[in-house]
UniProtKB/TrEMBL annotation:
Record-given protein name: Cytochrome P450
Keyword list, A-Z: Heme, Iron, Membrane, Metal-binding, Transmembrane, Transmembrane helix
Biological-process GO terms, alphabetical: brassinosteroid biosynthetic process; brassinosteroid homeostasis; sterol metabolic process
Membership in a protein family: Belongs to the cytochrome P450 family.
Length: 262
């Protein structure tokens, strides 16, 4: 009698395990072959939730095509589907398709950004706003502000000053010098009457920003970059608020307390 019961329990357990295996296999199949209205391009979805984030986030040289794109282009063509950080994604490496997408101006495609960048810059940041004519309007402002004919003389003078000040150094880091020059000019254009010490503070904060945020959240450097980015944002917002409050209102006890806080 005991032997029969054990055999029955064994059969039942085997049936449950078999059902679970079938169910998981169906879920994996549906994940890899997701279908909606219309036909999606070929590709692979990787593991559930994680997708192909780890391989997508692998570093690569500036002058080479990422191995993630190269492998899938050779297998699926210039348009393929994948999953990045749990988000179903279609990747386009076709210049003509990309050009048409950019021409749409948010009519058929909505621009989006990684959640980590949104947290650092704030959801109300101008670059994250959506709208039919918003990005066109932002481009017009940028062209008016940074038009080459308008500021070529100032940029030329600033470049000469930087070269003269750095000429005494035995080694010149061109990338570092150009980055600092661009930040100085941008800050000066946006906040014309900023003090040198405030400008230097903003420059150092911007330079502490790390693009490790575009890596996988499973990479430890991602969380370090996220923390540093949030701290840099807090310092920049504090500095800009102090500058605006000093230039707009008469200094009082409350504004002095705010500007002294860290």
């Amino acid at each position: 009698m005991l032997t029969i019961k054990k055999e029955m329990w064994g059969v039942a357990l085997s049936a449950v395990v078999a059902l679970l295996v079938v169910k998981i296999s169906l879920l994996l199949y549906r994940w890899s072959n997701h279908s909606r209205a219309g036909k999606l391009p070929s590709g692979s979805m990787g593991f559930p939730v994680i997708g192909e984030t780890v391989e997508f986030s692998k570093p690569y040289s500036f002058d080479e095509i990422p191995s993630f794109d190269r492998k899938r282009m050779s297998k699926h063509g210039s348009l393929f589907r994948t999953s990045i950080i749990g988000s179903k994604t279609i990747v386009s490496t076709d210049p003509e398709v990309n050009f048409e997408i950019f021409k749409q101006d948010n009519k058929c495609f909505i621009m989006s950004y990684p959640e980590a960048l949104v947290r650092i810059f704030g959801k109300d940041n101008l670059f994250f706003k959506q709208g039919k004519d918003f990005h066109r309007y932002m481009r017009q402002i940028a062209l008016q502000l940074l038009g080459p004919d308008k500021y070529i003389h100032e940029i030329d003078l600033a470049t000469r000053e930087h070269l003269n000040s750095d000429s005494s150094q035995s080694v010149l880091d061109v990338k570092d010098a150009v980055g600092r020059l661009i930040l100085e000019q941008m800050i000066q254009m946006i906040i014309s009457d900023i003090k040198p010490e405030n400008k230097n503070k903003l420059i150092e904060n911007f330079r502490d920003f790390s693009f490790d945020l575009v890596r996988s959240p499973f990479d430890p450097s991602f969380w370090k970059a996220l923390y540093n980015g949030l701290m840099v944002r807090s310092l920049d917002v504090h500095t800009i608020r102090c500058i605006v409050s000093k230039n707009t209102f008469k200094p009082n006890e409350n504004s002095r307390k705010i500007c002294k806080a860290t």
